[in-house]
Amino acid sequence: MVATGSINTLSTKWADNIESEGSDGQVRRFVHPFVQACAMFLGEFLCLLAFKGVYYHLRRKNNGAEDRHDLVQGNREFSPFILFVPAMCDMLATSIMYVGLNLTYPSSFQLLRGSVIIFVAILSVAFLNRTLVKREWFGIAFIMLGLVVVGMSDVISNDNAGSQYTRNNVITGDLLIILAQIITAVQMVYEEYYVTALNIPALQAVGWEGNNAHGVLEDLPDALAQMANNYQLIIAISGMIVSIAFFNFAGISVTKEISATTRMVLDSVRTLVVWVVSLLLVWQKFHYLQLIGFAGLLFGLEMKFPWSHTTIVDMINNDHKVEEKCHKVTSDIAAGKLNMAEFVEELGPALTHTDAAVRAKGTSLLSNVLKDLPPESLNEEQVELLCAFYIDRSLDHNTVTPMVLVGIEALTHMANLPDGAAVRLLRALFERVPCQSQKKPERTLYFHTIVALAGRKTDELKQWGADFVYGVIDAMEGERDPRNLLYLFENMPTFIRSYPMHHLAEEMFETFACYFPIDFHPNPNDPVAITRQGLAEQLADCLCATPELAEFAIPLLLEKLDSSLIVARLDSLALLRRSLELLDVAKVQEHHAELWSALKREVLPVGSTSGAEKELLDAAFLTVQALVKNASTSESTEKTLLDQILLSVMGGLSEANSKQFEACLRVELSCASASEYGTVYVIGKVVPMLLAQLNVDGHIDTRLANTLVDALQRLFTGCAQWYCLDKLDGALVGQVQKKFIEILLQEPDASEQKRLALLALAAVPEMVTSENRYVVYSTIVKILLNATDKSASTIDAVQQCLYAFAIRYQQEVKEVVLEKLVGHDYGTSEPALVQLVFKTLGKFVLYHGYTEKMVNFFLAKIFAPEDEKIAIVAMETLTDVVENGNWGELGRGELYVQYKLVDRFFDHAGDKLSSEYLYAMAQLIGAVVRLLSVDDQKDLILKRLPTLQLQKRADLYLASGLLGYLDQTVPLVDHFENLVTDLTKLGLESDDERVREVCNRLLCSLFNRMPDDEHHRGVLKRLLKLLREELKKHNHQAVVILSWVGKGLIARGHAEAGEVIDDIADLLDHPTLGHMAALAFEILSLEFPQLHLPLLRNLFKQKLFVWVMNKLEKRMEQYAGTHLKALAFVFTATPHTVLKMNLTKVGPLLLKCLAQDDDKTVLAALTIVLRFTREQAPFVQDHLQTLIPALLKLTVRSSSMKIRIGALECLLYVCKYPTFLLLPFKQSALVALQKPLDDPKRLVRNAAVAARLQWFVVGSTEEAKNDK
Description:
single chain; mainly alpha; two-stranded antiparallel ribbon; 64 helices; repeat
């Protein structure tokens, strides 16, 4: 604006000084001010052309850019005649100024134009409701003084008759310029009032101003003749046109973005530029008064417009980008560049304005700045000032109240909040701002303010007393917004526990009780959904925040338990349990009869129960337990309650065939689990009833016997919880153990009674007498050694019983059970039996007192030459114990140090051993090495690795055990290259698939852990070169090795990984290696549990996805089956969120994969498509016409049951999409889904029934309503 304005003034004056021949043939100066004014308006009109050009260019893009671009955004729907008044003012003022410019100096012209600030300020006060402070009036006075000095310099410095600038001419010119400034001030104020209010684009506004002006009162032929006779005039006029276009565009933009006064400030700055250039061009002489006048003018501008304050005040009403500038003000205050008190002072006119809307804007600006300030930015005095202001403003108009709440909430976070301020702020809110009269955002601020102050100023607010609690209750009462309620429910328990409720405890409880039980249905479109369950749990915290409140909950819950709504009863039971945890038995005892009566209706239901009712039933049993537990603090009260409960269920317990038996038994089990006394009471009362039914004369039905034994087992399992066997009646315990032993002796091993008896004895092995324990041991051994035809539940019961007795009776178990199991000849046993028994014995390795015996047993089997299969099972058992048994130092000490397991393997291993034996050996060595310290690992590698010759099969497996789980800090520099060479050679040449697998995994681990130095990179490059040579020979194993090496490099994020991926991707087009290349991507993508990769880089799976997509996406249309198979493997390993972000690229490829013949490709793609279908991804919706036929075809794919089930599940979830999209496919889907109904696999038939049923109801009346 400054540059183009200066050029405009100088171009105009240059044209005035140019002499040229006119239309009458006379040579004279170019004195055509009105032509110059018309040239100015032509320049302004060019802005309109530019506006239209930019607007239509952006409009052609059809993306809404015309509403966002800085040059054309704003209101375009306005009448151009709004700008007629400023256009006329501009034309008149410009013409008068150009006449004055012909008569005076250009620097005086420019200096005198500064007087426009005076007139703009006066008119702004009169018409724009501006208020000028003292500083601004002093500024205006200095500007007037500067203008007087400039005028005096013009009068004093020139009185030469022969000069162009005579005294009369200069005085006349100066007066004309001042007159023009009055007209210009009118134009500026008019523009600010209308242009800012209408948000007119600057280019458009300037253009219409130029179009509305018309040149008159001018000798146009003479002006044109002079211009034709002197090209310099054309240049000067062209400079005027171009500069005025840019100058006015910049000027009106400043008016729109900031204010008219700011525009005038910038306009006056160019005075210095014009003055200096005029002196340099000798268009005038230097006079010291001009310098004084110029200094006075600038000083006045500085006095009137300090950069920060004036900008803030002006922008309150005029700037539509207030939010952006608030951040600048905030940073200035935080940095100490701007004082908060001065800022508030400058906002004073807006904060005290008669218009409530202006006060709201001013308060909003202050509150937003305050909200963004760091807590330590203000001192205590400043915070006190702001507190007083906001307390005063709490009485203001309701349009100001929201901003007041923002400011008060911001003050609560200030570090220097003074003492007493919390009470004053909250009193003002409670008395002057009714919370529930505000809108939702304001109520949220209200609650945040209360919670923040209650947490910070606890002592201060406690002294306020009951009035504070009452104010909080009044603010909360009637709140309906779920987010505000969730916030209150989360924070009020702490409040209730921190503040005494005085006489308002019941009122506080009732405030929350009105929401119980929660009846809330979340909005499905809510991005951060609030659940009913979440609200219910938080509300329960409030209702049971203290025992004082929990006492009021009992009557409420008794009422709510009568509700017909299951969810209401569930919430009531949950709240009752919470209340019982807090209340003393004396507070609950009076309600025992009512509570049991209500609970009895829940625990003894009539008829069958649904899934929801089963949940209610479970909750009721838990509540019975809580009720008895509450009573357990008083033995007499507990006995009375237990008598009452037993009396109610005795009828059901006395008849095990009745439908009520299970419910009654669970009631008693709930009572027993509540306390030790309850267990003793229930067993003493119930067990005799059960034994009486079990010991009847004659035959007893098997199902009934199973029910009774199960009840006994459950009761004594509960007894184990309280360790109260010694408090039970000895005779009763003897009868029970006698019955269990009888069952062990008489019932078949596979019977349910024997299983239950074993579980009961496992819970309380102490009940079995010494002579009867050998019956238990015999039963355990018999079942374990004949376990092949036993159920898994029976075996589990046997193992539990064995381990329980092993802990209690160690010596007996060693001598009786373990001796028989260890001494058994497993050579003729089935492999499954050997694995089961060895797995059972393996756990004894971890039991103190059994370790030595069991380790010796397993080592004897491992190194026994007679049966290699048993040795393999023994090694697998020890490996499982070492890896999953938390053995730690014990494993290191026992196996590595004491038994020298690794050394024994090195002595024992040979090529005569089978690959299966050697593989199991390597796994066990690896598990032991993993437990060793780094120093022990280094010593082991130094001792054993140099002796190995990998060409020997046994040595290869030994190396695999040593290196498989080696710590990454153990150096292998001396062996690395030889290892890579030998392993690569074996991997390429061996015919043994197990050997090749060991080599490949070792290479993967080695390259994953290798140091990234020149030597190791050289080894890698030589290996890659060798493999590429082998690829030229069509060696399939080279592809496999390349993929394993690449896997190790990718996992660590090595730079060469991308090169390996490129090599494998290029092979996908290979006629003979393409299939192997696709399988190589499976190796790159999948996780192998037994593969040890010491270096794992974060997000390496995402990196693999990016590498592969960058390599292959350019040829998407040319993909063959191998490409799609490779991509399917990569997509399977890629995190779902990454696939979701790239679904536009991935989706079409997944659809192509579904059409492939390879089952692995289809299954991988189908799994991913199923996830997106469950999420109702928009991509799936857009491609239903392709997806549904493909899925229907897959439902009858005979080669894979998993594919058929996956396709049917996808079709089931597809039905969640809008009905109008599904109806075109409904008939064909129902017909196609008939065939899977007859599938030979039950799981497929079940999936087909569910899918077809869902498709059958597509378009039904009820579903259509749900869609709406």
